[in-house]
Design goal:
The chain is built from 3 helices and 15 strands. The chain is α+β, with helices and mostly antiparallel strands. The strands form 4 sheets. It has a 7-stranded mixed barrel with strand order 1-10-9-13-12-11-15. A 3-stranded antiparallel sheet has the order 5-6-7, covered by helices on one side. It has a two-stranded antiparallel ribbon with strand order 3-14. Strand 1 and strand 2 form a beta hairpin. The chain is globular and about 50 Å long.
Length: 264
């Protein structure tokens, strides 16, 4: 069974704007290119750049804690190393996050935007080497099945924006929820090979509308009410390098009949 890549996204700053890509090169042991390279610490997190290790997302300015983060529209240009950011009622800002003064300017801008939601000094953290500020310590690449999102939305009686789920790859053509039965199975993603290793457990970040920056849909409650779990999407680890482009095939394991117990 094959689906195809409908969209590719990176999130240069954890919790902030997804950026669409036409193609991406994936390789074993490497983070998704330019994805979650930075995170904004909301008070001391304990992260040590000299010995980078997983830090729980609650330590950062993320949608699960601060829906207003979605009001900040960010865009990173890797060719120049500049970050452009804007938000309603705030001045536009362009900085270089590699420079201390650039980080300080973004920290001050974001502090003004988030106001009382800031619980401690904001500090931009950079991920050294192949470290990424992902929600799971091994979550190199995340995939969302668009049919699953549509099915959940239909059960909720709303049209859910797939960007609520902040994935790297969005796949069209798979049966809804089939991906939950593929843990430990191989996957061909474009010209790269991968292995599904975990269903993604969803949090209240999915409640936030990426357009309005408001928590307007109880996605986690709907997942549990309809399926008895909080799964939507899968993490995969890349096992063989390759290029992945929009429109490329995503070949799945041989499918078994999907039961309601595998939903979400």
């Amino acid at each position: 069974m094959s689906g195809h890549v409908a969209a590719i996204c990176r999130h240069p700053i954890k919790g902030f704007t997804p950026e669409p890509l036409s193609a991406v090169q994936l390789a074993p042991g490497q983070g998704f290119p330019f994805d979650r390279l930075w995170a904004v610490e909301n008070g001391p997190s304990g992260f040590d750049a000299a010995a980078p290790a997983f830090v729980a997302k609650q330590k950062f300015t993320v949608l699960a804690a601060i829906p207003k983060v979605a009001a900040a529209r960010t865009r990173y240009d890797e060719a120049t190393g500049t970050l452009s950011v804007c938000a309603p009622g705030a001045p536009d800002l362009t900085v270089r996050l590699a420079e201390p003064q650039g980080r300080a300017a973004f920290e001050a801008w974001l502090t003004d935007l988030l106001g009382d939601d800031v619980r401690g000094p904001l500090r931009v953290l950079a991920a050294p080497g192949q470290h990424r500020f992902t929600d799971h310590p091994l979550g190199q690449v995340s995939i969302i099945n668009l049919a699953s999102v549509r099915d959940l939305g239909e059960r909720m009686g709303v049209a859910l924006d797939p960007l609520r789920f902040r994935a790297n790859l969005y796949v069209e053509g798979w049966p809804a929820w089939a991906e939950n039965g593929w843990i430990g199975k191989p996957l061909m993603v474009g010209w790269a090979r991968a292995e599904v290793f975990k269903s993604i457990v969803r949090c209240v970040a999915t409640h936030v509308n990426p357009d309005t920056a408001e928590a307007d849909q109880a996605v986690t409650k709907a997942l549990f009410d309809h399926f008895g779990n909080l799964f939507c999407g899968v993490y995969v680890r890349v096992t063989s390098a390759g290029l992945v482009g929009v429109g490329d095939a995503v070949t799945t394991p041989k499918l078994e009949p999907v039961s309601e117990e595998l939903g979400a």
